[in-house]
Amino acid sequence: MCGKLALLDRLLVRLKEAKHKVLIFSQMTRMLDILDYYLDEKGHHPCRLDGQVRQEVRQQQIADFNSKPETFVFLLSTRAGGLGINLTAADTVIIYDSDWNPHQDMQAMDRCHRIGQTKPVHVYRLATSQSVEGRMLAVAGNKLKLEKVVITKGNFRQESVPQKEAVKDEDVLELLKADESTLDDICQSCDVSDEDLARVLDRSDLTKTFDPSKTPPLPMKGPGWAVVQGGTSGSVLKSVE
Predict the structure, then answer these.
(1) SS3 25
(2) Residues 205 and 100 in one domain
(3) Pseudo-torsion of CA 39, 203, 27, 186, nearest 10°?
(4) Which residue pairs from 63-67 have beta carbons closer than 8 angstroms and sit at least 24 positions apart in sequence?
(5) In 3-state terms, what secondary structure has residue 227?
(6) Which of these, 22, 52, 19, 48, lies nearest to 35 by C-alpha position?
(7) Is residue 162 situated within a structural domain?
(8) Which of 49, 90, 92, 167 is most exposed, with the fewest beta carbons within 10 Å of its own?
C-alpha cells in the first residue's frame, strides 16, 4: 500500500469516529476507481461524481450525501466536481492529488465553503515527498504568489489611480526562485505519528470554548506534515511517502 493511501485510511477512521463528512478529490478517474473499490471494501460505501455520471444520478448522490448521516465519504474528480454543486454537509476536504492550476483545487475546496455551512472546514492535501508532486506544489504556490503581487501592485484595482506601479522584474524573479531544500524541509520523508495526526485533526481551536492555556497551539510543521494555511479557513496537511 502506498503512503498516501495508508494515511488516507488512518484519516478516514478517525474522521468517521468523530462524525465528520469528507470530500475526496482526485484528478484522475482511474484513481477514483481504485479509491472507490478500496473504500467499498473497507465498508465506507462512498458516493461518487465524475464526468461520466449522468445528471439524475449526480443529483441523487448529492441528495444522499447531504441528507443521510451514514454516508460520510464523497469521491469527486476535481474538474467535474469543482463547480456548480453544494455539499455543505461536508466539513472536511482531502485533495488526494493536486492540479497544476491551483485555482482548480481552490474551486474544489469551495464545494463545502458555501452558504449554509455551519461548521469549520478543514482541508488536507496529500503529497509524496521527493516526487514530481513537490515540484507541482511549488509551481502552483508560485502562481498564487505572482497573482498576489500583481494585484497588490494595483493592476486589478477598480478605482482610478494617477499611475499604476509596474511589477518589477526583480519581484518576479525573486518569487520564481524555487528553493528545493524548502520543500524537503517542509515535508520530511517519514510517517505521521498517531499523536501528530490527532493534533492535526483536532478542531478545538476553532470553537468558542477553546482554552489556549490548556492546549498548546499546533506548530506550523512536524515530521511528515506541514500547516500551509491556518486560521478559520482550515489547514492543509501534506503527507509524505
Answers:
(1) strand
(2) yes
(3) -120
(4) 65/21, 65/89, 65/90
(5) coil
(6) 48
(7) yes
(8) 167
| Residue 238 counted as domain residue | no
- Do 144 and 202 sit in the same domain of this protein? no
Main-chain phi, psi angles of 47, to 5 degrees: -75, 165
C-beta separation of 224 from 239 below 8 A: yes
Identity at 121, one-letter amino acid code: V
Q: How many Cβ atoms from other residues are within 10 Å of residue 165's Cβ?
A: 10
pTM for the whole thing? 0.73
Examine residue 149 and state whether it is found in any structural domain, yes or no: yes
Location of C-alpha cell 469543482: 82
Among 13, 15, 53, 3, residue whose Cα is nearest residue 33: 53
Same domain as 153, residue 115: no
Instruction: Provide the CATH number for the domain around residue 48.
Output: 3.40.50.300
DSSP string, 156-205: T--S--SSPPPPPHHHHHHHH---HHHHHHHS-SSPPPHHHHHHHH--GG
Q: Give the tens place of pLDDT for each residue, 194-232.
A: 888 888 888 776 655 545 555 566 667 766 777 766 543
